Batch of 4 targets.
Target 1
Amino acid sequence: MGKITFTGPKVADFKCPSDKKQAFLWDLTAPGLGLRTTPAGEPAYVFQSVYQGKTIRLTIGSPDVWQLEDSKRVAPDGSEAVIQGVRSKAKSLQRLIDDGKDPRDLKRDALAAKENKVTAAATKAKADKAQALTVGDLWQQYLAEGKPKRRPAWKPRYRADIILMSSPGGVKKVRGQGVTRVGPLYPLLAQQLTQINEDTLKAWHDDEAKKGPDYAARALMMFRGFLRWAASKPEYRSLVNRAAGGAPAILDSLPSTKANKRKDCLEVAQLPGWFAGAEMLGNRTIATYLKALVLTGARREEMAGLRWEDVDFRWSRLTLADKVNDTRIIPLSPYLAQMLATLPRVTNKDGRANPFVFAAKSASGHIEEPRSNFSKVNKHAGVVKLTIHGLRRSFSLLGEAAGAPAGAIAQVMGHSPDSIAEGYRPRSIDALRPYLAQIEAHILEQAGIVFDAKVAPGALRVVNH
């Protein structure tokens, strides 16, 4: 088609024949300016010329956007701006060719610059957002994904302690008067990740240590776990200072572990009163639970989570959830077997059997907080400053007094191999059985309990002296 002078109506009326893929209309006024359209009705202004002996063509844009001639726009401040028209654009492109420049390169450069600007802006926005991330922004993710070294997950009690340590407080206490206090980790949740350094952690720890040095030290150990987790995530690694929690200025201010290491345990003379106090609780489940801690040296949560399916009366074995390994199996000693066999099997409200040996009306379905009853037993026996973990220590000391090898005692308790003084020599269940029976018999003798080990489980006959 020949050249015509473009006008608004002529541009709008230009159509592509249905038997062609595209059609062109060329402007008589501006050399190289054309209008391209398709049967789908998608017109666009184009510029066509010759550069270095080859025909080149560039798309300028839609007629809906580009006017034919330059126009003026008055800004709100009264200033005027010239809006380039498509004819003027075509002429400027031809001038570039006349100057020996390829307008396609300039267009690519302009698009690349625009894209780089957008990318740079997005990168900066992403960086600014990352810089603004707080500990609190990641805390729920940490609670969901965090875990100790070389272990698949935290123990439920440890996770509950982390949640308690990071709570805002102000909740009515379940026991006692008043409301719960703010957790020592809570102030750190508002800190930006990039602000967590040796100085900020030192200031935080010093403030928390005034309220309780041991509590603050434990909170610090927990927070170091958070820093280790965040540093393991590629998206957060550059934002955290993993070494901040281990800075000498902080560690040197921690209370001495040797000075604060607990040594509480049941003395031999206290055993009769303590076992009698357990019997006087009027709750066989909690009484058996507390005595089982003394007779096995198990950790409180290990025994609390014991399920009936983990109690093998036939082969006299217990399977406990272990802190070091996933589980450990220990012999089921005669007296403990008798006590477990006589415990009631509890049914939940939904009619299903409660799977836990030490069932309780709690969220977990088993004993979670035995300290109230534990205090009653201690008070009856006249024992002061005895912790529940002290029962585990009592088993170890009473086991030594009974003449059992240190390795056998440690294996029953679930100590890690490198903590066994005599060297780690794992024994079979049958090899452990006589030692655990020996320890149990010694404890019962010192407690003044006469027990017939030959009685079948479920037919317990015990005489307290």
Target 2
Amino acid sequence: MNISADDVLTDRQATHRPDSPEKGQRKYVTNMVIHVENKNNIYYICDRCIKGAFKLVLGFLAANGLIGMPLYVFFTDGAGELKGPIEELFAPFRYKIILDWYHLMEKVEQRLSGGMKSYKLWHIFEDEVIKPLLWFGNVKAAIASLQSLSGEDIRSEGSITKLIEYLSRNEKYIPCYALRRELGLRNSSNRVEKANDIIVSSRQKNRGMSWSYEGSRGLASVTAAWKNDELRSWCQDRTLPFAFPKEAA
């Protein structure tokens, strides 16, 4: 079973208007979206906080007889706040956390561009050294290659050090992406990024609007219910099937 998780921020309204002490500050509402996939079945879960969302995932698995599956695979963008709840709540089960390949490369590029002097050199180093090593899950060799960089090629020791620390911290979440690709397995958390677009971003972001906590989370919940084919049952008798949509079964 594949489970992809990500949070999305939308602009928040000031608590009090018009003379709010928050005036001029950047304010956000957070919605946590989780994409649950089992074979061809998909279910969307939305909650205001990370741990609450993963508790709902556990409840969904229990309600649908999916507790105790051979392996739960979680795909994340590497955010530290996601790993703790997964490791705590799924400790009794077999699970694996996979760092999304795109976000891994994004972090590598960000740190190398700030850490190396030559634009041409850091591109060659990334494409011919770091990227192939990480694609095959060889994190230790990637760290060693960073540690062996010549001081003449480094613009910022801090950026290189941060990249080494990032790779060390996430080593157990970096698989052999090449093998997974060969086996036809996923390496990306893009399912939940698309889910974020559908459930939150398409309506709530980049439209010149700000939202209250209740409004943002309420709309996200309604959209998730619509995508799960639960909106009719909720509107008619206030019940949720809390199961994969029948047409996807």
Target 3
Amino acid sequence: MKKSTVLLAWSVALLLCGCRSSKVRISGRFVGNDAKTVYLEQVTPLAQSIIDSTTLDKEGNYRLFLKTAPQSPALYHIIYNGERIPLFLAAGDRPTVSSVGNVVRNYTVAGSEESELLRRFYQPFVTGAQNLDKLALRLSDAGLTEADRKALLEEYTAEYYRIRREQLHFIIENKASLAAVYALYQRLPGDTYLFNGDSDVVYFRTVAEALEQSHPESPYLQSLLAEITRMDARINLSSNIVEAGYPDLEMPDIYGKPIRLSSLTGKVVLLDFWSAELGNSNALNAELKEIYAKYAEANTPFEVYQVAIDTSKPLWITAVQEQRLPWISVSDLRGKASSSLGMYNVQKLPTNFLIDKEGTLVARDIYGKSLEAKLDELTR
């Protein structure tokens, strides 16, 4: 076989297997500042660490290298002159990042679509935050007249909501991008939430749904889904605990009908967490069925609200039907991702909670004779 034919076959094989270098090279030029060193910083949920650095040449040119980059874009910072430029980098990228004068306000990006999109959000956001800082500094002047103070407050408020509108507009318009994930977590000075707290979950869910199509393998998608679960749990807890006296739940039964735990107010309720997938439910449910039948005619009604922590609907429904469970059986079919686990701090299965007719949690993990003794007291 000719050498040229071998080389051609090798080249085609490389293309067909989709091989891609795991290295990243970043180059560019920084001018207009006295700083001489440029750093590359890796950003993870737990830490930030410098992984490369270099010195500018006499024209301000530089090169940075990342030896092993992930296949899915991850967040990094270029640090120069005390300022950070955020980038999303993936294996094989060759971006060019340059700036003249003020680093963050003037930097440009080429060769990385996600990083360029991130720049379009980041530069105006930082500029807006700096404007707010300047207005706050002016407001701290003790010599301001009341009229001047009022005017500055109005200017601060207007600027604050202008930045907010732009931030949310960017997130919605670019919901399928990793830049939108970055924008979700940016906060102005003094902010706790993106917009107004509980409704933030709408934006997180919008981005997560789009990323499931555009970046299904990204670790940032999994982080968003976990954050959504936590936010849902917090919303449910804060909105329902006041009215019910305990964290309320609403889940579908085996027929798909949603049933609220608080709909049982006035009854003594055993909230029982279990799993058909664990395979130890027969004996536990058999004992509970005897107790359930014993208190069927009690003066104060007794009910069981049993939550299945499962992911397989057929398996769950089969267990309910084969064991002929006579009480309320529900599941959101999210398994260990169910927000109900966090709301009740469930660390193991089975776990149960006993709620009296006034809606007060009176016992946890109560079984057998101990449960019967407590029911004797509460249902008389």
Target 4
Amino acid sequence: MYNQITSNRQKSWFLILIFTGILAAAGYLYGYLTHSGYSGLVLALMISLGMTLISWFAGDKIALWQTGAHELIKREQNPYIWNLIENLCITAGLPRPRIYLIDDPSPNAFATGRDPKHASIALTTGLIERLENEELEGVIAHELSHIKNLDIRFLMLIAVMVGAITILGDFFIRGSLFSHRGRDRQGGHGIMILIGILFFILAPLIGELIKLAVSRRREYLADASGALLTRYPEGLARALEKIRDAKQPLQQASTATAHLWIASPFGEGGFRQKISSLLSTHPPIEDRIKQLRAM
């Protein structure tokens, strides 16, 4: 389990380094062709960060509202779930997150929030009804690991970079249209238009693929961390099998919140899953089960 955790963390940071290199190269190229230094890169980062901060402080409330989740205010409303989460939080050394239930027969769960002190965990009624005690503990431990590993904060950094690359692509196009100085008059203007078009098309796509790859690495990391918390990888493995076999999409599935769930909210084997594994925010459940049972 420790080896799996170390491996996934290293791979996540490796992807971040690649992402940073692409963003820095794009900013340098833009500054070189427009003679504006790093102003374009700085402006793109500022705009992207501003947009992301709005999601940072209100994104969890929006996600919970979109899924129709309702909060458990008191232990008496569902003492079984309350006690499971509270006991695991004590073991993990985490404050108890706010607990939400979603009236949906599809077995699934997600955690959200910007840090452990502002976290929430949501479980569908289908998950609670289908899973045994140890299996449900495995799912909850997985979601608590997302909170403890600060995955939401980690993915916010990725979102800022994706946004900055997209904005820089737009800057390339606009800069090529309005820049007429120095090298631009000597043929650089046409080159910049060509580079701008290519960058505008390819860079956001590359950024999204890296974001999805990082998201998948964080799922593996949460699996390993959750297994370390319960000391029982088989519980989460069996839970994932039941989620896979259900093949039931959520009633309010959304691409905007798909990366939050423990498994794809569109159901295994659905049309969106068959388009391409590259476009999925989740690694194949079979691979996750295999790694859990190898621990």
